[in-house]
Please model this.
Amino acid sequence: MPGIVKAIPPSSRCDVGHFKTKTEKSVFFVPRFQNRHMFLCERGLTLAELLLTVALFSVLLSIAIPNWSTLTPGYQLDSAARQVATDLQSARNRAIAQYRRYRVVSVTSTAYNVEREQMPGGSYVVFTGPKALPSGITSSFDNTPVFQTRGNVSPGATVTLTNSKGQTRQVEVSQSGKIEIQ
Model:
């Protein structure tokens, strides 16, 4: 009978059956779910394998956690430097766009304000702030950078950031208004 498929028995209980058609001499594979021994062939994890995997994972985790805690202060320092540099650049951009002077003022060793000039030659008001630095980070400003309406700074300033391990990063503001993290 053409089109009828006859099964060739598998060589073992877990092999996938092979079939040939009488008209064509081709071989194709039948998916596993069509095998009548499906439940005998499925494999899982034993309790011993599962416990061994959990034990290895816990050993690797116990090694990684102490190393991570030593890296965290450095990451916080880099984050604080990017935060200060972003706020300085934002103050510069606002001074140019709004034609008003802006300045960044240290409030405490862990916070600062961005202030805007009310009227030309007038007093300053808090624009944003106080902005807190990440925990464990302290700052010191050598000057208060005032961004002029053309983007330049008078006077130039350096903000030094220090973490709990004594590492430092400096954010420098040149008189031309260029802001760099060092």
